[in-house]
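Q: How would the structure tokens look for this protein?
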Amino acid sequence: MSTTQQSTGLVAEALRNDPRVAEAKRLLLEAVGEHAAKINDVKTASPELADPYQNLLDEYGQMRGGNLYFPYLASGIGNGPFVELANGSVKLDFITGIGVHGFGHSDPRIVEAGIDAALNDTVMHGNLQQGTISYDFVKSMLAIANQSNAGLDHCFLTTSGAMANENALKIAFQKHAPATRTLTFEKCFAGRTLALAQVTDKAKYRDGIPKAIDVDLIPFFDHEDPQGSTRRCVQAIRHHAHRFPGQYANLWLELVQGEGGYYPGSKDFFRAIITEAKKHDMAIIADEVQSFSRTTRPFAFQHFELDDLVDIVTVGKITQVCCTIYRDSYKPRPGLISQTFTGSSWAMLAGKAIIEGLVDSGHYGPEGRNVKLHDQFVAGIKRIEEKFPGSLKGPYGIGGMVAFTPFKGSFEEAKDLVMKMYHRGLLSFMAGGNPTRVRFLMPLGCTTEAHIDQALQILETCVGEMAASA
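A: Here is the predicted structure in token form.
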């Protein structure tokens, strides 16, 4: 039983159980549900809202110092994968804020979490003042992380995936001091802080900023040459470790490369390279900010059966509140990680509802819903490729992560297709470079087979237009 559900005699408990609160919650959920039900299909913008909406976009772009990637300003309501914008249009959201909105839009479980959060005494929790809400989230997260006896003892909350990753680096460096180097994969993405921009394999993210840490790159898994690529990666680790003996604090792993283009590794590959890295006393960090919840297990490290090998794991996006999870042997000394904000009440309540909702709804396992949604989506993409030969290469990814390379894989072709789909009502995004891919991150908690069919129809129309004009 949750701490917040136990009979305690507290005033807070009396408030939560007040019949007026229960009735108010019922009425609010009923009202949201009735209005959300009106949003059930893709819709074009209202002509009378075109000019006011464009004014909003222009003014917001000016205030924030740059235009939005999409001309997207939500009205504040949706229905599962459908979201209404402030110009009256409705989009089918298959990118979900790059994997954030796991239950889509206006899901009653998330709305209810928001109502409960509004009854809490403060908005934000922090290191100095936490609440039972944060206790419940951490307990739930650690229980899921240790489903296969991983031995991950601690969970530190934070407000962003970048900060979760930054804390992971700090923990590893402190444990392995005076080591100062990080080893990671080519095409890695870790974030855009001063340190994480060095880990991320993208030069433009480091443009004009000083060097913070030393990072060396190793090749990732190649599905067309599994044994060869594994051998080359092990040799690369050995080469770097011998060149800089004792200087590597960690091996940074994206088990499924996200921004790099949706490349998953394999169990044998990861076990081989981790075994080599541990010979040289490196911490094993698994960055699951994007991959968490999207494979056959809640964590990708569980999917690849690496429970006994990972030392530090980071989580974010779909969890709403982010965290760094680590073994007791990596427990940092006081003062290393501490933040005024570790997350909001709504983020923690919503994150707990999402995590438990996916587990309870049968999304995991070799025949779970994640696999079934993936299989339906990729089968549809293959049919489009058969109809328009040379249009799509792939598909790539795993579970709730789906991508393909459009045409010749140029940035311009991928962006053109993404924008065509946007204007026809389907939200997607890009990933990788040389080639550039188009990716989807479905809202796993609400996507149905009918939604995927609708997305595929829009994709096919847009691909057909580009193929005809090629």
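Residues 124-360 form a domain with the Aspartate Aminotransferase; domain 2 fold (CATH 3.40.640.10).

The two ends are 60 Å apart (CA to CA).

Upvote if useful.
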